[in-house]
Amino acid sequence: MMNERRHSSVSTKNILVILILGSLGQLAWLLENSWFNTFTYDCVTTNTTPIALMNALSAITATVTTFIMGTISDRAGKRKPFIRYGYLLWGIFTAGFIVSGKIRNVFWASFAVVVLDCVMTFFGSTAYDACYNAWITDISDEGNRGKVTVLGQLGLYIATGIGIAAGAIVDRFGYPAFFISIGVLVSVAGFITASFIEEGKSQKPSLDNNGEGFLKGILSSFSKESYQKNRELFLVLFALFGVMVAFQISFAYETIYANNVLHISKSVNSLLMLPVAPAAIAGAVIAGRFADKGKGIVTLLAAPLIFSAGALITSFARGVAVLVAGKVFLYGGMVMMTTSSMAMFKNLSPADERGHFEGIRMVFQVLLPMVIGPSLGSFLIEHYGLGPLIYLTTAMVSLLAVVPAWILNKSEKEGV
Length: 416
Hints:
Shape: globular
Order of helices and strands: HHHHHHHHHHHHHHHHHH
């Protein structure tokens, strides 16, 4: 239970580092999660199977990488070198993704798309998922993790703001200019900004992992004993899992849907995030404040309902106005869920295994959702056509997140 809160301030330097690295990381993931898919559909093949495979293998790579590199950084007692050089290589391979479009054979082009995405993901997950997120936990406490998590979410919308120009860049200059410009920005700005990182005072080498071997220590995370010891943490992750699976059903095909079903250009579709961003930021701030007051469960319960309403509205969209209304609720609900769940997760993570537990989070937030979601979306498209069904399915699946959130709420009230 988390009733007593410690309150401390976050330095201006750390705030800037969090915002800049968070924005760069989210920008790279935005490109990978949305524009790699669109690039594959436009330039490689209109068969959505490679997209689903790319998302699934990328998610597996991200999760395995976060487990391994997070645990290594725990044992090393350092995050900075992993973040600094991770960002440098992350940007290089982001720019290099464009090489796959030069291959004329569809099979080998599809193969290159999957491999390059996995390599890019390895460095991104090392720098961002494993070590940047663990570093944020290292330098914060239970009284300000909601605020710090909001800063990370603001990075998403700063990245989205930059990404609004993506459609226009692609439409006017093509994919090479877009991928290379983002890759250079992530490499250069990430490497420089990470040099200002100071390791958290609580971060010390963890050499023996309670006497367990490296692989055994990772596998033990999913044992019955681990669940019982960290029951609240796993319930938070189960709730997050429900919304993220639902989100990935439609997100991988969001731009493709707008282009081919609603006949909205890439430039206009990117601009639609302008009215959505303020609502999403407001959702993040509200969730962060509730989390810092020890009431994160409130937004954990509300977020799936808001998200589901947004997906339902989006399914009825036939033009820009209804589409924007749907996105406001959909993204607002998702950001409320990620903010509240991340803040609660960080508070519940064991202090000497924060990097390791980031790997567990990745299983629920990335691996399983990105394997299940895009595959289900691809199945629906292949069998029923590209249409509103993917958003109707998104709306229904997201409601499953209410179950673990309700169980957690009941446990907190009963003091279990």
